[in-house]
Amino acid sequence: MQEFAGQVAVITGGASGVGRSLAFALGRRGACVVAADVDRNAMDALERDAKAAGISLLTRRCDVTAAGDCEALAGYAMSEHGRIDMVFANAGIGAGEAGPMWTYSMKDWQWCFGVNVWGVVNTINAFLPRLVAQERKSHFTVTGSGNGAFVVLPDAPIYTATKAAVQAITENLYYQNVALKSPVSVHALFPGPHVVDTGLFDSDRVRPESFDTGTPKSSGIRSVEDMRRLMQQHGMELKTTHPDEVAEAAVAGILADTFWICPRTEESLAKFLARVESIRTLQNPVAASVG
Ligand code: NAD
Q1: What does the pLDDT look like over 190-219, one tens digit per residue?
Q2: Alpha-carbon torsion (106, 107, 110, 116), positive or negative
Q3: Ligand 1 centroid – CA 207 distance (Å)
Q4: Which residues contact 154 (CB under 8 A, 6 or more apart)?
């Protein structure tokens, strides 16, 4: 399985969760991986594990909210490897919001939009000119979320709003590359089909001091396990997906060259269709739930 032998993959938010699983899925198939992140400890652990697995991997500090960091990352990958075949704009955070949205700190809105939206825009601006200039096939994959792209999750208005914006940006990026007959394939990756067991619920571990709100995380949920317990209290079962499954879906989507990389269930599809039906019939919407 050396489908990506000699190819170069750059992953933002590459040190943990979906990004880390992508690093292994691509590395095991022969790709040289450049994993970029703000979490030095997680990058050190990734380096150690990749070495043990015999995977070619470089790490690089890159805060995707800083356009200069993304530009430097693209330059670094090019200078180290002389080519870039796959880019994953994957870095993302959860704001941990709970309660009425008018009670949230502006710092929560700004941090989440900074990473999830401006981070994607900065990554596009740094890499697309280089990918297009190579004049050969390459892939640009954006990690979105069904919570925003397909349904509105009422308890996570900040996160949902960022991922709605990300979907609009990704789909436009696809249309523009098609219209320009560019050699860059754009993909929209939706981790799932269930809640993916990653560090997303503990994003505060990488929250910069400048966005510290001075109050404890309002939702009280810091892990998938916390969420599982909360749902059990309400008699509901939380189904989860391992990030390795998401990485395998991403690999399959890139090899098949499809825009939508979206593992889903009948249940998640039904939630999306219920929203579309509400728009079609102009009936008032009903809140979708996590799952
Ligand atoms: P994660 O927290 O395990 O990984 C996110 C990574 O992004 C971390 O390594 C973190 O250090 C890094 N990061 C945070 N801020 C950054 C910044 N400013 N610059 C660079 N890197 C930064 O969570 P994950 O679930 O693997 O998240 C990956 C992507 O998947 C995100 O875009 C997230 O929104 C999306 N997603 C996750 C789920 C899920 O259920 N976990 C569902 C849908 C979409």
Answers
A1: 999 999 999 999 999 999 999 999 887 667
A2: negative
A3: 12
A4: 287, 288
Distance 93 CA to ligand 1 centre (A): 5
| Domains held by the chain: number | 1
pTM of the model: 0.98
CB atoms within 10 A of CB 181: 6
As given in the structure block, the two tokens for residue 76 are 């670094």
Whether the predicted pLDDT of 284 surpasses 70: yes
Kindly give the number of the ligand 1 atom that is closest to the alpha carbon of 203: 2
Range of the domain at 95: 8-229+239-265
Q: Rounded CA gap, 130 and 134, in Å? A: 6
Q: Which SS3 state, helix, strand or coil, does residue 8 take? A: strand
* Residue whose CA is at the smallest distance from ligand 1 atom 6: 13
Distance 181 CA to ligand 1 centre (A): 31
Pocket of ligand 1 contains residue 39 by CB under 6 Å: yes
Q: Whose CA is nearest to atom 19 of ligand 1?
A: 63
Six-digit token pair at 214?
């001075």
User: Is residue 151 one of the residues assigned to a domain?
Assistant: yes
Residue nearest to ligand 1 atom 12, measured at CA: 13
> Which pLDDT belongs to residue 153?
87
pLDDT at 250: 98
Identify residue 245 by its one-letter amino acid code: E
In a domain, 271, yes or no: no
Does residue 222 lie within any of the structural domains? yes
Q: Residue 34: is its pLDDT beyond 80?
A: yes
What is the number of the ligand 1 atom nearest to the C-alpha of 69? 19
For residue 184, is it within any domain?
A: yes
Pocket test for ligand 1, best of 20, 37, 69, 221 (most atoms within 8 A of CB): 37
The CATH number of the domain holding residue 43 is 3.40.50.720
Reported confidence tier of residue 257, pLDDT bands at 50, 70, 90 = very high
pLDDT tier, 234 (very low <50, low <70, confident <90, very high otherwise) = confident
